[in-house]
């Protein structure tokens, strides 16, 4: 009697377990499905237009075949550079502050505000940057776009830096102090250095994220059909170029937009791969 | 090489010895603790402890978990105060000066009184060589040894901790690749590289296997000729094996402090007797 009921319970549990495991597999597949579909679609539509000219040539006038997005690729590079120059030092510094001052009231407030800023819609950041950096100077500029993107990077970098520094065991800090290290030297040359691979990864993820932003640039960098690397002039960027080309009524431009999207996602993918590689490097918490 | 080491010791010793009060020949007391209290917030975890640590000896601090022995040890190189809310009252006289004197810097104290912790703490971003040299790199410019002197000091420290033969062909490899016992000896080498006068060991073998433990014990035994050692241990046999004098703590108080032999064979306090015979703790 007892034996049969146990056997039946066991069988029922096995079936339940099988169904639940199957469901998690399905959920995992669905979770990656959008990315796979996007990649497949982009490759199908855009791959034919991605060629050497696309990277080296300027946009061709409407109706004319060929041409590329050299200005937008360089523009995106420049915007990311300006954004990183602002977002990385401030973000890492703020993260270090939050990690070192854990419980302090000011730190709690900054942590909360940083989370709010992180959730801020990017279009709001764009309008704010326009009000602050475009209107007073009476024209759009690459600098304004870079600063808007940099401001978006700050909360991302701040929080990952804080998390990574917190992963460094207290014993490491104590070991340095016991050797006669000063507090700031302990923070910089032991704690920050130990957390560095994680911080670099976080920074690259932040770069990958802002590289694809469009909304903050509409109000700031504006876009540019011509070659420009001047920080005070409007500048082209891949996401905006894709937007413009996709809305235009020309088939050539549509093909170019697909190609632009493929290149953008390719860039983001490369950055993510570098981030993964850095995390797995020889020295550091993550790895041996 | 010997001169290089002597220079490091001499120059490093300067900040602490501006007013040498005692004569070393007559009173071989290296550290004199006087009515020391240590607090975490409002909780007093070390209560009115006074004792003298003698130069060139191994002093063991034993007692049950939570009796304040680690805190007492951390008061001896001003590591206790690095914990938020922690503070110290009383005196610790080292080289004739109270290390808690406002004019004395904690950094200077820690350069002369080294410390090794329960868990090995090699710096994961540094190579084996850089780990050992970590304490030298931060010395003031005029006291910092050259690269060649550093290499010599590193080799000497690794030889003293019996690590040299095991790592000499991979000094530039990551220190985290070493075994737990090797990492702990590396930490001792790192502490020795700056030629400290006193070495504090906070349960250095608690996370190690018996063989590694034995090697550390032998090392402690050999090092006593060069450096005064204070070791916290919850292992009474270890205290009996390697120490010259033993301090027994209970609930934050120093119950008994005596030569190790006397402590284990003829304890004066009934609480000590109960503890060393295994009736509690």
Please outline the helices and strands.
The complex is a heterodimer of chains A (288) and B (281).
Chain A: H1 2-46, H2 52-56, H3 70-100, H4 105-118, H5 122-134, H6 142-166, H7 170-178, H8 183-211, H9 215-218, H10 238-247, H11 251-279
Helix pairs in contact in A: 1-11, 3-6, 3-8, 3-10, 4-6, 5-6, 6-8, 7-8, 8-11, 10-11
Chain B: H1 2-13, E1 29-40, E2 43-54, E3 58-62, H2 69-75, E4 86-94, E5 97-98, H3 106-112, E6 113-116, H4 128-132, H5 134-137, H6 147-160, H7 164-167, H8 180-193, E7 198-202, H9 210-223, E8 228-232, H10 236-242, E9 245-250, E10 253-259, H11 260-265, H12 270-276
Parallel strand pairs in B: 3-8, 3-9, 6-7, 7-8
Antiparallel strand pairs in B: 1-2, 1-4, 4-5, 9-10
Helix pairs in contact in B: 6-8, 8-9
Overall average residue pLDDT of chain A: 88
Give me the CATH fold name of chain B. Answer: Rossmann fold
Q: What's the CATH architecture name of chain B?
A: 3-Layer(aba) Sandwich
Q: What share of residues of chain A is helical?
A: over 70%
Mean pLDDT of chain B: 86
* Stretches with pLDDT under 50, minimum 5 residues of chain B: 1-27
Distance between the termini of chain A: 55 Å
Summarize the helix and strand pattern of chain A as letters. HHHHHHHHHHH
Q: What oligomeric arrangement do these chains adopt?
A: heterodimer
Give the CATH H-level superfamily of chain A: MetI-like
C-alpha-based Rg of chain A, rounded: 24 Å
- Profile the largest sheet of chain A: none
Q: How would a crystallographer describe the biggest sheet of chain B?
A: 6 strands, mixed
Q: Which CATH architecture of chain A?
A: Orthogonal Bundle
Question: What general form of chain A does the structure show?
Answer: flat
Number of strands of chain A: 0
Task: Supply the number of structural domains of chain A.
Answer: 1
Characterization of the model:
- The complex is a heterodimer of chains A (288) and B (281).
- Chain A is mainly alpha-helical and 288 residues long.
- Chain A has a single domain (53-279), classed as MetI-like fold, CATH 1.10.3720.
- In chain A, 74% of the residues lie in helices and 0% in strands.
- Residues 282-288 of chain A have low confidence and may be disordered.
- The model of chain B is unreliable at 1-27 (pLDDT under 50).
- Chain B is α/β, with parallel strands linked by helices and 281 residues long.
- In chain B, the strands form two sheets. Chain B has a six-stranded mixed β-sheet with strand order 6-7-8-3-9-10, sandwiched between helices. In chain B, strands 2-1-4-5 form a four-stranded antiparallel β-sheet, with helices on one face.
- Chain B has one domain: 3-Layer(aba) Sandwich (Rossmann fold).
- Helix content of chain B is 36%, strand content 24%.
- Chain B has twelve helices and ten strands.
- The A-B interface holds A 103, 169, 171-172, 174-182, 185, 190, 193-194, 196, 282-285, 288 and B 77, 79, 82, 84, 107-108, 110-111, 114-115, 117, 119, 121, 123-126, 134-135, 138, 174, 176-177, 187, 190-191, 194.
